[in-house]
Structures are given as structure tokens and as C-alpha cells.
Amino acid sequence: MQTTYKFRLYPTGEQEQKLLWTLNKCRYVYNFLLSEMNQQKVIDKAQLQEMIVDLKRIEPDLKNVHSKVLQYENYRLFSNLRALSQTKKMGRKVGSMRFKGKNWFKTFSYNQSGFAVMQNRTRYDKLWLSKIGEIPFIMHRDIEGKIKQITIKHHPSGKWYASIIAETKTEIPETKNKEKVGLDLGTMNYVYDSDGNHSDNPKHLDKSLGKLQKGQRRLSRKRKGSQNRNKQRISVARVHEKIINQRDDFLHKLSRYYVDKYGFIAVEDLQIKNMVRNCHLAKSISDASWSKFIQMLEFKAERAGVRVVKVEPRGTTQICSSCGIKVHKELWNRTHKCTCGLEINRDYNSAMNILKRALGQELSKSTPVEIEPLLSNEQVWSEKQETPCESYG
Ligand SMILES: [Zn+2]
Predict the structure, then answer these.
(1) Beta 264-268 vs 307-311: how paired, if at all?
(2) Best CA proximity match to 187, nearest among 264, 105, 70, 287
(3) Ligand 1 center to 273 CA (angstroms)
(4) What's 69's DSSP letter?
(5) Which of 29, 143, 178, 318 is the residue whose CA sits 20 to 30 A from 22?
(6) Measured in whole angstroms, how far is the alpha carbon of residue 14 from the centre of its chain?
(7) Ligand 1 centre from 341 Cα, in Å?
């Protein structure tokens, strides 16, 4: 079983220079291999692999990049080629492979060797990367199993991240539980499921959220740079931390409930769902908690042999889950009332649509498309959504 872990890296100034330099060299090698490939009559992967060795002889400073990291560029090239030919097969018009400009090259990867994770008892743990050094990071989650690959990514924000893929030997068989459920994630009822059950934000969490709002208002009235403002900022930060803990506790219990009860769970794909960027702190926490909930659900499900299927969320609220026609609703309409006679809670209706969609998606999957490993790794990167709009740290 494979698990991907994502950690923020805190390189020193010198390490950052090396990271940027490596990124640039990898891009250079990628573009070199692409131009060589374009000249090949018959595309030969092994021959290109050997060219990296030749290139190193001509340009000795490439020896300052771990050899597997350079080899990975050949893999990346062929991976992109495969993805491109797949798109072509699907009948879409595509151009030829492009040389990568600076802004299009943000990652490099260590495969199988050239890295080590060192857990410390001090503030920072260390990620050792061959030819770069020991980069400080905080290991907020233990890595289980053997590390197969580490991808270093430079975010547009300037931050650096490591995506670590680890493999554990235990293969978990698919559960025999045939029960299926669809989940609608909302703000009124935290979750409404297709069996008609719902669960709300726990009361104590609501209370803390109210407290946070009050604290924030008080903070905004304090004079900038004053001692009082500083005190208030710390107090708000504490409430915030408490809320995150309370919320995580709630989400752990909720995800456990669904993974124990069902063998197939359908949820909305939040990456597609257009989440309005909200500067309201309480709201931003609840938004972030959706993706956190799905993360927890997937993590537990994978270990229990339970399937989690994500569906396109658009239209799930409006469509009637019984007859399929569109029933327009405003945000405040809490009931779905259709001419076919169906009259149920709005979120209940969505949950049933989500389940239906997932089952339909599974059926259409009978012609499997080869999963392209590089792209699936790339998907790991999503912006961290937990950052509130006003910082008080
Ligand atoms: Zn209907």
C-alpha cells in the first residue's frame, strides 16, 4: 500500500540556492533529452538514458546533482510523452512536446536512493538530500513503511515542499461490506448522508467559533503595535488552536463512523467545487475542514479496504434525485420539493445524487485507462487551505 506524505521544508539560504540550482539543471537535462528524442528516428529510452552519462562528461558540474535525480528526468519525459499520446487517442488536438521554461519546471525527484529522513527530538527534523544537505522540516505525521520516492516542489509562493511516497507491505483486501453511501458536506448540517442521517458541528465547536469571532473583533479595535493588541493576538491564536483540535477530534470520529459502516463512500470532489475564498475566519475554518475530512476518510478507508469515490459536485443540489429534472433552489430553500412528488431535505437530496453519480462513474469505468504514475503524484499538491486571512502568529 502506498501513502503520500507532504511536508513543508525550511531550507537555509545556502540550501535554497542549491535547490534552485538543481531545479535549473534538471530542466536543462529534460530539455536536452527532449531535443535528442526529437531527432531519434525510433524513440529509444535506453539510449537517451545513456546520453545523460555522456552529457555529464561534457558538463562536469552536472555531477553536483544526484545521479538518480537526473535519470528521473528521462522517466519524466517518457511519462509526459505517454500522457500526450493518451490525450491524442482520446481524440483531442495536441501539439508536440514543449521545451520547459523556467516557470514550467517546479519539481525534481529522488527515486529509490539519495535521501534519508532523520527524526530529531529538537524543533526540526531533517531531510537529507544527496548533493544538497540536511534540510530542516517538521514531521507532523510519522512515515510508515519504506520510502520509495521524494519529490521536491517549489511553490509559486516561494515555499518548498517535499512529497514523500512510502510503501508498506501489507496489502489490504477489499472489504466485503456491500453497503453504499453518498455524503453531502455542507455548513448547516456538517454531513448529510444518502441514508437520511446527518450530523452537525458539535456544540462546543460552535461555541468556540463564536468566541473566536468575538476575539477577532476585539483585536481589530486594538491600536496597532500596542501591548494590548499583542495580548489579544495571542489569545485569539489560542482559541484558534483549540478550535482546530476540537474540529479534528470531531472529524476523526465522523470519518471512523462512515468507514466502519460502509464499503463504498461517495463524496464531492472539492478540488472541482468552486470554494469561495472567504476572509471570514470561522467560515474559512469550516471550508478547510471539508478537505481535512476527506483526507481522513481516505486515509482510514484505504486501511480498511473501503472505496472512496469522488464525483463532480456541480448540479447535485438542483437535480431531483428521484426523477432527474432540475429544481431551482436558492441558498435559503432548505427543502427539495419536486413536481414528481419528492419532498425531502435539500442536503439529503444532494447526498443521493452524489451516490448515484459515483455509481454511474464506476460503471463507465469498465474500460480502464492506464494510470499515469507521474501525473498521479503531481495531484498530491494542493494549496494548504487552513491559513486564515488575517495572520496573528
Ligand atoms: Zn422529481
Answers:
(1) parallel
(2) 287
(3) 24
(4) H
(5) 143
(6) 29
(7) 6
